[in-house]
């Protein structure tokens, strides 16, 4: 338990460094005001979608943090003969063998559904800012956004089903279509984020941090970033892995809210010019 406690303390100490990175990125994005991105007019629905996205992502992070707290704090002593670091307690795309912990699958599933909704709203905001874009670009963004939302929604729905039934479904785990959609989430989100960055950098940053909760993002955090941040490499799962994933959603929500603020400023400045 000493190593575990040290790992958790290391994670807590380094959360500040993660948030400082977000602050620097948001400050850089703030310099790229909407006027520099070629946006000539901001419709009110685009602002509403950006605001809704930011709020949904922040609420999603709260549910994710609740699930992480249940695993790493409430059940820190483990269950039975198994230490809490055993991957039997993993609840992200859980697979047999699994031990269901109270307070993990349900809030995580809700969080992923909210994440899907938040990114759908963020995609809608980007689409509204490209009224003169070619049909091919708009269709590409729409398809990418649909793939991202579907992937997170499937992850959330699977977690909720496990919470309700207490069982892992082998059928869904071997369904190639479901697997394809889920693992296309990460590249689709990357492509969408690059396209969004060219329009409004804060939206691109939001999608970058949202990658933390994608399948490839989760694997990267579990294998690389969590051990590096905590300075602790256990025999199985690194303490706080899901907490880092949730912090990514916090950062994504903050960036989406910054995008909304930038859009509001752009709309007001455009109105002022029209009144001159």
Task: Characterise the protein shown here.
The protein is mainly α and 276 residues long. The chain has helices at residues 2-31, 44-74, 105-128, 135-165, 170-173, 176-199, 201-210, 215-230, 241-275. 74% of the residues lie in helices and 0% in strands.
| Fraction in beta strands | under 5%
Cα(first) to Cα(last) distance is 67 Å
For the CA atoms, what is the radius of gyration? 20 Å
Number of strands: 0
| Sheet/helix structural class | mainly alpha
Number of helices: 9
Q: SSE order, as H and E?
A: HHHHHHHHH
Enumerate the spans where pLDDT stays under 50 for 5 or more consecutive residues.
32-37
The dominant shape is: elongated
Key words describing this protein structure:
single chain; mainly alpha; 276 residues; 9 helices
What is this entry, summarized?
With 276 residues, this protein is an all-alpha fold.
Strand and helix layout:
Layout: H1 2-31, H2 44-74, H3 105-128, H4 135-165, H5 170-173, H6 176-199, H7 201-210, H8 215-230, H9 241-275
Helix pairs in contact: 1-9, 2-3, 2-9, 3-4, 4-6, 6-7, 7-9, 8-9
